[in-house]
From TrEMBL, chains A, B:
Belongs to the aspartokinase family. Substrate binds at T48, E75. It catalyses: L-aspartate + ATP = 4-phospho-L-aspartate + ADP. It comes from the Bacteria. GO terms for cellular component: cytosol. This is Aspartokinase. Pfam families: AA_kinase, ACT_9.
Length: 414, 414
């Protein structure tokens, strides 16, 4: 008898009808296989925003402790409604809030981290044969204060519960039916990827962001919890995300990700002295601005250029800080470019296959797409290009690596 | 330094603006007097109904445990919003849910009773100088399940907290400014009653029902908690409800209550044998139908008539049961009359003043109002009359007992 953790997001829990016709159905499918089921739910779509807006109409800077006290009620309502539905259908169920489920967190209100889970109450209800429904996104501190885990935290709740309960699988139900080789709105030929490694999923963040919170993938990787991303509405198999194995490696490239939410900042003619880069990036870290790619050119006549990318939301702040540092260190000027995009080719297989980078550059060049910055890791190659070429770049790379074909065919090709 | 418990209802908590402009103001008025303040809040007006409707759209007979799990969130939101408002205004405050506030109840979901309150967490926050805001209407069982106290339960929460904390006073803030000598919509000359005994308040239920839950008055009486009913919006002194003292007794009649929500059922020609009445009223009690007034006529030729009143909502069920019993005991017939009203004259002083009953009957007779049933206690006289005379009866009794005059004047008159 397997133990399955299922997580349903806000869209799935969006109405009484959806809860009854889809969510309950997915739960009972597992139940009928003889499995024990623990369900983690988000608030009904729109509810968390409604609560945040109520709070923000008082002040833009609310007391975070009280903020969590208010916002955590959204999941309590949806969990209760689901339990009422299942009980009404004749299936014993019980709804537990974060504190009732024993989810202990630190005190970082609005972005708390799970410290441990006391699973005794959950196990007791499972032994009684009940479907256990747990509010996602929240927990309780040692002092008995309600905390929330931050946006998308319900995925993390589900994975943490799956790890603590040693669940056989954690199914993340959402409104898309898996992770694709590229965004299907851009590449109609994009295919659902049947199996992915955690590392690939993390690199495919921009494809997966809508379906899976990155933090929850890191958590799943750490505790080796197999994750399945699947659709609440179709019930298809979706995409399984797990530890890599030999069969996975046979596919060189798994998918093409893209991200238009970054901006590039370039410091021109920086005196090439030790400690200059450190000064700049320390200042950005101090201001809590995460930096993605960093490129420094070869020094010419004792001067160099430093380029880096940050999230567009942070670009204004980053530009200001960079200008201050640039003045201090005697750089010539600071240029900010918001009209860039990052296109990434991701796959475990490229570790052992030469020529992937060459193929990327060659393909982009063939279509006249200039590469502004390059960054590589063992399992991905990312290129910063002019924003206007984003969709074209994704399409031509998707085709160049044969991602429109079945994985089995692609393996034969190489 | 006094300790004051304040309770604000759903209308007072109805919007962010009301919370800021009125509720916070009332709290800070007490705070500025140097008092310690514990605040009990209801859900925002309409919110509990919204949650109940969500649940009822799943099933008319929801699992009560889950029902409470869902419905209790309304107060958590309003308590959090008030705390955020006060903190934003610069006054340290903290919101506590029923379980955080240590409110232990029995397991009677949807109508739980408070068993005890562990005040340690409340006292800790008060010592830190904080305004402590507590969700009304709810508590927690020994097993860690969330319960609610039933409609209007926030008044009970407030009084129970005042008793447990040995508060100097419990102020029930609402949208009316006190208890009146009669319903001011019927008697424009009605006056606010400055001081009432608990017993009088209980008898004046129909005047007080809109402002105060009866269960909370019983609770206050039991634990001798002085209650003040006052308006959130005007901040006036309102009506103080406390133990009777000598000054109170000098006023003979305190107010005129009326109730149109009862129906009368009469069993005609009942064989006058021992145990017949018991049989009938046991059956009604069995069906959980509370009976208000009971009148049995003097027996004529071995037969008698029994009349009683019940809430109109229970009248159909009561009629059916009575008809079955009537058949069994060989009574002639059962008559139901929904078009009746109960008018009551209430006052501690009538215990020691003869002639109040006479004045009631004389006044009603003078205006041609026939009395159908009479019931008296030490501090009230209730008459069942034809519903169409209700307003007239209230007005002429109000005038007859001089309730349109100041209490001090009335004392002189007698």
């Amino acid at each position: 008898m397997a133990l399955i953790v299922q997580k349903f997001g806000g869209t799935s829990m969006g109405s009484i009808e959806r809860i009854r016709d889809f969510v309950a159905k997915r739960i009972l499918e597992e139940k009928e296989k003889g499995n024990r089921v623990v369900v983690v739910v988000s608030a009904m779509a729109g509810e968390t925003d409604r609560l945040i807006n109520l709070v923000k109409s008082i002040t833009q800077e609310p007391n975070e402790r009280d903020m969590d006290f208010v916002v955590s009620t959204g999941e309590q309502v949806s969990a209760g409604l689901l339990s009422i539905t299942l009980n009404h259908m004749g299936y014993p169920a019980v709804a537990l809030s974060g504190w009732q489920a024993g989810i202990k967190t630190d005190k970082a209100f609005t972005k708390a981290r799970i410290l441990e889970i006391d699973t005794s109450r959950i196990l007791k209800h499972l032994e009684e044969g009940k479907i256990v429904i747990i509010t996602g996104f929240q927990g309780i501190t040692e002092e008995g204060e309600i905390t929330t885990l931050g946006r998308g935290g319900s995925d993390t709740s589900a994975v943490a519960l799956a790890a603590a309960l040693k669940a056989d699988r954690c199914d993340i139900y959402t409104d898309v039916d898996g992770v694709y080789t590229a965004d299907p709105r851009i590449v109609p030929e994009a295919r659902r990827i049947p199996v992915l490694s955690y590392e690939e999923m993390l690199e495919l963040a921009s494809l997966g962001a809508k379906v899976l919170q990155i933090r929850s993938v890191e958590f799943a990787m750490k505790y080796k919890v197999p994750l399945r991303v699947r659709s609440t509405f179709t019930g298809d198999e979706g995409t399984l995300i797990k530890e890599e194995d030999e069969t996975m490696e046979r596919v060189v490239v798994r998918g093409i990700a893209h991200n238009k939410n970054e901006a590039r900042i370039t410091v021109v003619k920086v005196p090439d002295k030790p400690g200059i880069a450190a000064k700049l990036f320390d200042a950005l870290a101090e201001a809590n601005i995460p930096v993605d790619m960093i490129v420094q050119n070869v020094s010419v006549d004792g001067f160099t250029d430093i380029s880096f990318t940050v999230d567009k939301n942070d670009a204004g702040k980053a530009e200001k800080i960079t200008k201050e540092i640039a003045k201090e260190i005697g750089a010539k000027e600071v240029i900010r470019d918001d009209r860039i995009a990052k296109v990434s080719v991701v796959g475990l297989g490229m570790r052992s296959h030469a020529g992937v980078a060459g193929k990327v550059f060659e393909t982009l060049a063939k279509y006249g797409i200039n590469i502004i910055m390059i960054s590589t890791s063992e399992i991905k190659i990312s290129c910063i290009i002019d924003e206007k070429f984003t969709e074209l770049a994704v399409r031509v790379l998707h085709e160049a690596f044969g991602l429109d074909k079945e994985e089995s065919e692609r393996v034969k090709q190489l």
